[in-house]
Amino acid sequence: MRKHSTNGVSRRSFIGGISAVGAAGLLHGCRLHDLSGYRANSKVRLAVIGCGGQGAYDVCSFERHSGLCEIVALVDTDIGAAHTLETLKKHPGVPRFQDFRQMFDRMADGIDAVLVAIPDHTHYCACIEAMRRGKAVYVEKPLAHSFRECELLMKAERETGVVCQMGNQGHSGDNYFQYRDYVAAGILKDVTKVVAHMNMQRRWHKWGGKVSSYPKAEPLPATLDWDKWVGAALWHDFSKDLAYGEWRCWYDYGNGCMGDWGAHILDCVHQFTLKGALPTKVEISGLKGANPFVFPIEDTLKMTFPCGTVVEWYEGLDNKPPLPKGFRYADNKGLFPASTANDGLVDPPLKPGKEIYLKDGTVWQGLSHSSTLVKCGAQDEPVPPYERAKDDHWENFLRAVRGEEEAHSPFRVAAPLSAIFCLGVAAQRLGRSFDFDPVAKRAIGDDEVNLLLDGPAPRKGWEGYYEA
Predict the structure, then answer these.
(1) What is the pLDDT of residues 49-66, one digit of tens each?
(2) Around Cβ 340, how many Cβ atoms within 10 Å?
(3) Please, which residues have CB within 8 angstroms of residue 180's CB and are 6 or more apart in sequence?
(4) Does an H or E element contain 401, and which?
(5) Cα separation, 435 vs 281, whole angstroms
(6) Which helix (H) or strand (E) holds 192?
(7) What pLDDT, in 10s, does the model give residues 168-182?
(8) Do 51 and 94 form a contact (C-beta atoms < 8 A)?
(9) Alpha carbon distance 247, 294 (integer Å)
(10) Which domains can be identified in the chain, with CATH numbers?
(11) The model's pTM
(12) Fewer Cβ close by (within 10 Å): the C or N end of the chain?
């Protein structure tokens, strides 16, 4: 196993306010392909940062619009591993890198835009590098790993003027236009409460909150550059329980259930009902499996916004909210099976979604991603007309890069949304509620919360990404 000289920070010292950085050397010299045959054309030239998992899915989605874009570079810290092979095989002649910085140094002039589909803790630096070089950015949700990173990305969007899009793909679906148009028409008005829920199994549930340390070091796979995988974040030695999707379990690398699914469920609520606001109070209750290292297996978050609207978030297999009278399930376009509350099941599974409570008692219910709203109890009642989607989220991004339309989830929209998830993560990690000043953007009288919102000091070699 490769040895690293580290000076990592324990959670206790981090929460206590001690800034420390790891001193792992940045590795260079990965094998580069000959770029002499590369030629630009009128298509959006897209570099892929993250070739496996969600990245592979996004690559397929962009490939559906091959008339608008072409893939010109592939980057992955574990390039050549099994989960990257599908993407690599489809693009055999495309230059490959393990370090996005090296890719930009070698071929920035041949790139118009990047796809960033890597773990939560590495989104920020890849986005900033691209934006500083004038490249458009499509980045997977959640936008960033800390509240401060969300703020810095929104600032970079203003300063650079590049096209940006967060990958909450439902934000270009019919539901986006329906919600927008219903708010504008006064159909969705006087919202008093929004109840959101995601009660499916999560990766960290298998540990039941019984984690007493970070996992022991394991031999590195031959394909993986772990130093670059960790990036600017706190250093922990490689373990399969930290990588390969498991990173979402750990506070130091992931943003948990709310960061993963909140961007799908609360996106339109936050943009059009809450007008992009930050809350004044963050409350947490019902914690089960609370742990200093991994996310709880169950909890309820409640956020109160300046307009008076309350958003409640329920997560955990058995932590389901009370459902309104007349509630019924709606089809979610194949993502989850359609069912009804009276389909013969004693307790039908509650699919990810939300219920919207209005002052006049009317309740609308919609599922995550791109499902449209339905009125509870009104199965055959026609819905008012609204604009329909003309393209998907990936095409919307490409056309925005080409100057043909506006991106639907730019950072000025996605950053405040992702910031509220970071507030929720702080409450989960500390196990307590706090008041928040949405103007100063600081927790009131709570230095520990503010320390978490700022995030740890970046490791040596990554400090420049956090400088103004």
Answers:
(1) 999 999 999 999 999 999
(2) 13
(3) 268, 272, 386, 387
(4) helix 393-401
(5) 4
(6) strand 191-198
(7) 999 999 999 999 999
(8) no
(9) 10
(10) 11-25+41-170+395-428+443-466 (3.40.50.720), 172-220+258-389 (3.30.360)
(11) 0.89
(12) C
